[in-house]
Each structure stands twice: as C-alpha cells, then as structure tokens.
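User: I'm curious whether this sequence folds into something compact or stays loose and floppy. Could you predict its structure so I can see for myself?
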Amino acid sequence: MSALKNVLAPSFVLPIGARRGALPAAVAATLLLAACGAKEGAPGGAPPGGGMPPPEVGVVRVSEQTIALQTELPGRVEPVRVAQVRARVNGVVQKRLFREGSEVKAGQALFQIDAAPYQASLDSAQAALAKAQANVTQTTAQAERYKPLAEANAVSKQDYINVVAAQRQAEADVASARAAVQTARINVGYARVSAPISGRIGRALVTEGALVSSAEATQLAVIQQIDTVYVNFTQSTTEVLRMRRALQAGQLRSAGDGAIAVRVVLDDGTELPRQGKLLFSDLTVDATSGQITLRAEVPNPDGLLLPGQYVRVRLAQAELPDGILIPQQAVTRGTQGDSVLVVGADGKPQPRPVKIGSAQGTNWVVLDGLKPGEQVIVEGFQKMMVPGAPVKPVPWSKGASAPAGAASAANPAASAASAAPSASAASAQ
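Assistant: Here's the prediction. I'll summarize afterward.
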C-alpha cells in the first residue's frame, strides 16, 4: 500500500487545463490513501498516528526465598602445625639430606652434623660400662664367699659388711655407666637431624660447613603442615551484635546446629571448591580495634593456600527465611537512597525506593520496598526515551542477549531502511 501511495501522490499536481477532468481521480486517490492509512493502523502495525511500539525491557519477577546471609571478611592463612628444626648438639654441618620445598615425613633425616666426637664419647662410655660390670662380677663373688664365713664367725661382721657395700657400689657404677652410654648414644643420634613432623619444608637456613650450637639452638629449617590450614579473621562487634539480635527476634534463622560453613576467595576472585568450617569464636574483644577473632579450618590438598597469604572469607552466619534477591544492575544507588524501576499495572515504569542489605554474589538482598509478584526492570533502560511511556516487559536471564524485536524497536531507522526496497519494488510494478 505504501508503494501505491508513491504512485498516486504525483496526481495531485496537474496542469491547469487538465485539473477539471482529473478532479474525480484526485478524490478517488484521496479516499484510497485514507483507506490505506486505516489498514496500516490496524492491529499488528504501528499505533495510529505513526507512533512506535512500546520498547521491550528485561524484567525479573520478585519472589521470596530462603537466603543464606553471607559476610565477607579479610583473613590470613596459617598452617595447622609448624615445627622449627634446630640443632641439639654442637658441631659442623656435613650434609643436607633433603630437597628444599619438598614434602618430608616425620623421622626423615634432614641434616648430618659431624658425629665423630660423640661416637668417641659413646665408645668411652661403653668401655666404662664394661669395666663397671666386671667390678660387679668380682664384688658379687666375694660377697657370696663371705656370707657363710660371717655366719660361722670365721670373718668379722665388719669385713662382710664392707664386701656387700663394695658389691652395691659396683652395681651403682654399672647403672651410671649405662646412663653415660645412653647419653652418648643420644648425642650421636642428634648429630643426624630428623624431621619432627610431616609437612612441607622450606629452604635450608644453614649450609654445609656451618658451625651450629645446641646452646643457641641454631635454626636449620622450618616444616609446615598445609594439607589443612587455618584462616584467621576478625569481625566487628557491631556486626556480631546485630546478627544476634536479629536471631533472637526471629528475623533470621540459624544456618544449622553444626559447624558454620566457610568459603575462601583468592586474590583473583576465584572461590576454592572445598569449603571449610568455623572452629571457634574468641569472645574477647580487642580493646584497640573492637574486633572479635574467628578461626576457620579449610582443607588445602592442592596447596593453593600458603602460610601468610591474605584471602577473603565468606561466612554464612544465618538464614533469611523470606528474603528477596534482585540483580545488582537493577538497583540505582545514590545519596538520597536506593531505588528500582517497577513495571506498574498500566505497563508504565515506576520508581520505587528500596532498602538494600548485603550482597550475595551479583545480587542484592532487598530488606524492604518490594512485594512478591512485582516486575523489576533489569535491562533496557536506554530504550525508555520518553518518561512515563509504557514498556513491554519480557523475562530476563543473566547472560542472555537482547529480547527478540528489541533491536527494531530501538532502531526504527534501520527498520525503515529495510522496508524501503520493498516499497520501491511495488512502485516499479
């Protein structure tokens, strides 16, 4: 019909001599154009008067759900067990028997200190023990001989007492020599330094040829267990008090009777696949910072968490039984408060002030201002050119492209350009 308009439109401009005969044709053309305009305004076309259809906007329908309230706090990683390997005898380090940064087992040899002096002391103690044992044999035999003689009064009782005392002294010498042997054997064992616990050992703090001392307890290396680590973090007393009051008032529900789940977020924003658990809460408040110390135990079989590393901890402390979540991009935050756009019953967007709580991933927790069933605009704000004009709500999903038909509604020039060839073709016919 547009092509027909293009064909008939020039008939209104006629020569003076031909106007009287062409008047009926002009009237007919006018009526025909009016009929075409009425048909184009029918359902399925543009609104009467040439207006554009309402723009499509992505919306989410408000619904209540149980929300686990999470608190994100900075924390620091700490190994479960730490052992400082130190020298327990004096001497020169002869060998390093481990690879730096490797996993070691409890009892594994780490360093070899020169054990020659201690081996000599062990040999001397063993010789003294043998001598004491021989003396015991002699004094024991003598005491056994003197016993019947003393009973028969063949020897004086004083001589017999002296012999028995010598026997007991020899036995004491044997016990002392055995202790000396044990001490020397221990020193020889200390010369071969072993790992007190299993874990990852760091760099060696001494090299071969270094003189170490037991008096100064020279540190040789450090072993840390990181298969499971602790994450220490703090939380303000205000947050803890607010959470407890909400639980007592019934506004929040505890996440469970067992241990509270803890998630760890790395510096790059990735979350560890394995969750940890909250171990305890230190009820003592730091007077300088007003913080309460918390500790979580987190599995670390992959070794992604290292001692001293700073991480972020997501702690689910309670649950909101009738909570509302909306995408963060739907909320306009300002100094006067937070607000969203809600599609009203007449299809027109209406601003609505809301009260925002904590963030849950890419969503906000709405504490007040929205009711179940309402439609909140998330996408398509740039299409609402006329304030108060109606919009066409379509369901929005995260990561989805623009709704079908939105491009033509947003760019009418492109639609007119695409329709122009068809009109030209109709005119040619």
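Summary: The radius of gyration is 46 Å. Residues 1-46, 401-429 have pLDDT under 50 and may be disordered.
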